[in-house]
Design brief:
The chain has about 575 residues and is an alpha/beta fold. The chain has four domains: about 10-195, Pyruvate-ferredoxin Oxidoreductase, domain 3, CATH 3.40.920.10; about 205-380, Rossmann fold, CATH 3.40.50; about 390-455, no CATH class; about 460-565, Rossmann fold (3-Layer(aba) Sandwich), CATH 3.40.50.920. The radius of gyration is 26 Å and the shape is globular.
Length: about 575
């Protein structure tokens, strides 16, 4: 019998093939049926920037306990074409079980021969290979065949009856192969199920951000599609009628952000979704938000640049873009979710911050976070009441009234008797253009004064680990779960982890955490340590060790644990 996995409670499955072979279909079906069967799941994909060809893969971790991180280890691999083996050779170990067409793959590696292509071809189309693969794995986990077929019938319900029947036939044959493997003693998976996850739901990062926007009262979204942000835009478009959201696919990113600003001015709660290259076009609109003190929520979904870079890969390379974009000096807020629950809660909070402080608020995510799936409890997605900061204006209303905290009461046209003046030039409290130098100073000071109020509302970091720590590891965004799981492997006694949910303004607590540590380490998915530079600029503390990665892939748990062990 072939041993499975390093762990009695977790297995890593990887399926790989070319674009067009239905890898995403496999991911969706398999994660859902495994979860229905009582397993925690985590899935993440890597894919090339092409419609056909290349090598795309999905990793699905199946576990008895919660799992939410990418691992290098492959316990079971199903390559759907010959290039898949070469594409993943750096992750294949002697312990990896490969299931596939021996004849098609033509490799010297040991393979448990499964006639995927033969079965699919007999059914009339090579595309059925993906359903055979799904059903083999489902059978190995001893998922009930009837449950699998019911799910497939529901999933393909919008197809014609012949297609549905062929998919069910593919599932039946794949399931039979799994039973033969089990009965022959070739493979025996013994991962305990968890009966408590039945009510939980499977979402990805894009879904979580979109749901957070809905919970935050978003009723207008304008965007030009750009991966990896497009999933948020399409999710909001899909459910726009149910939640009263006006969706506009703009002709470009310049129009998108200006539409968003117009919507906020009129009283809506607006959002734009984009990635680095698209946001470059939005920077003039960002400055317009700054001088007109118009709220704005921006999902900046990072991928590797410059220019088109690696359009389907991941990176944390745009922090400085968000920090310094837009001409002139004006405040902003940057939120950095590291989990699906944070993607929901911080997006919801972004709308509150934007409305309250009348500034642009960034939600910094990346391809890895937005495209990863796992099951979450519905309690992780609890909405808070939406409180609007709009006031009813009076006859003597001044949109930019000078106040002690720099935040002027915000009115909108048609709500009250006052005139809501707005101008992209420097202006006086009433919104009229001015070139008076004293008024210019007052208005700049007024806008920057908001930073003090914002600093008092900064979301505190999450601390975990030893209270008596010598080494402090700092992370932000999507490195969260990977660092947590690496810590669990290393069982660090004198180390702690500080996860920043908001990187601008930085939390006041950060300085004291840094001063307590004898040794500091930062983990970032970029080449220059952008957060480390910001920390030094704001606190004067030089981070001692930087663990950086910028090949387009996220940190794996094993990789990060190895790098941390050398420092700790």
């Amino acid at each position: 019998m072939i041993p499975i996995s390093h762990s009695p409670t977790e297995i890593s499955l990887v399926l790989c093939g070319e674009a067009g072979q239905g890898i995403q279909t496999i991911e969706t079906i398999l994660t859902n049926v495994l979860k229905l069967h009582g397993y925690h799941i985590f899935a993440t994909k890597e894919y090339m920037s092409r419609i056909r060809g290349g090598s795309n893969s999905t990793e699905i971790c199946v576990a008895s306990n919660r799992v939410a991180s990418y691992v290098d280890r492959i316990d079971i691999l199903i390559p759907l074409d010959k290039p898949a083996i070469d594409h993943l050779k750096h992750r294949i170990s002697p312990k990896t079980i490969i299931l596939g067409d021996q004849e098609q793959l033509a490799t010297d590696l040991p393979i448990i021969d499964i006639p995927l292509t033969k079965i699919a071809t007999a059914l009339g189309n090579h595309i059925f290979t993906n359903i055979v693969a799904v059903s083999v794995l489902s059978g190995l986990f001893q998922i009930d065949l009837e449950m699998l077929q019911n799910y497939l019938a529901s999933y393909f319900a919008n197809k014609n009856r012949e297609i549905v029947e062929k998919n069910l036939a593919a599932a039946h044959q794949g399931y039979q192969i799994a039973q033969e493997l089990i009965s022959s003693g070739s493979i025996n998976i013994q991962i305990p199920q968890n009966p408590n996850i039945g009510p939980e739901i499977i979402i990805n990062g894009a879904d979580a951000v979109a749901l957070g926007a809905i919970a935050g009262g978003c009723n207008f979204v304008a965007s030009y599609p750009m991966s990896p942000s497009t999933g948020v835009f399409t999710y909001l478009a899909q459910y726009a009628p149910e939640f009263g959201i006006l969706v506009e696919q703009a002709e470009d990113e310049i129009s998108a952000i200006n539409m968003g600003l117009g919507a906020w001015y009129a009283g809506a709660r607006a959002m734009v979704t984009t990635s680095g290259g698209g946001f470059d076009l939005m920077t003039e609109g960002l400055s317009l938000a700054g001088i007109t003190e118009t709220p704005m929520v921006i999902l900046l979904a990072q991928r590797p640049g410059p220019a088109t870079g690696l359009p389907t890969r991941t990176e944390q390379g745009d922090l400085e873009l968000a920090l310094y974009s837009g001409h002139g000096e004006f405040p902003r807020i940057i939120l950095t979710p590291g989990s699906l629950s944070e993607a929901f809660s911080l997006t919801q909070k972004a709308f509150r911050f934007a409305d309250e402080f009348q500034v642009p608020v960034f939600i910094m995510a990346d391809q890895y976070l937005l495209d990863s799936f796992y099951n979450v409890s519905e309690s992780d997605l609890n909405p808070s009441p939406v409180h609007s900061c709009i006031i009813e204006t009076s006859d003597n209303y001044q949109r930019y009234e000078l106040t002690s905290d720099g935040i002027s009461p915000r009115g909108i046209p048609g709500f009250g008797t006052g005139l809501v003046g707005l101008d992209s030039d420097e202006h006086d409290p009433a919104g009229h253009i001015t070139e008076d130098p004293e008024m210019r100073i007052q208005m700049v000071d007024k806008r920057l004064k908001k930073l003090e109020s914002i600093r008092n509302a900064v979301i505190p970091p999450e601390f975990s680990g030893s209270q008596d720590y010598q080494t402090l590891v700092i992370g932000w965004g999507s490195t969260y779960h990977t660092i947590k799981e690496a810590f669990a492997i290393l069982n660090c006694k004198r180390a702690a982890f500080l996860h920043l949910k908001q990187v601008y303004p930085l939390p006041k607590e950060l300085a004291s955490y840094l001063k307590t540590a004898d040794k500091t380490v930062i983990v970032e998915n970029n080449a220059t340590g952008q957060l480390a530079k910001l920390i030094k600029q704001e606190t004067g503390v030089e981070i001692g060790h930087r663990i950086l990665k910028y090949d387009g892939f996220p940190f794996s748990v094993e990789e990060l644990a190895n790098k941390l062990s050398k420092i700790l």
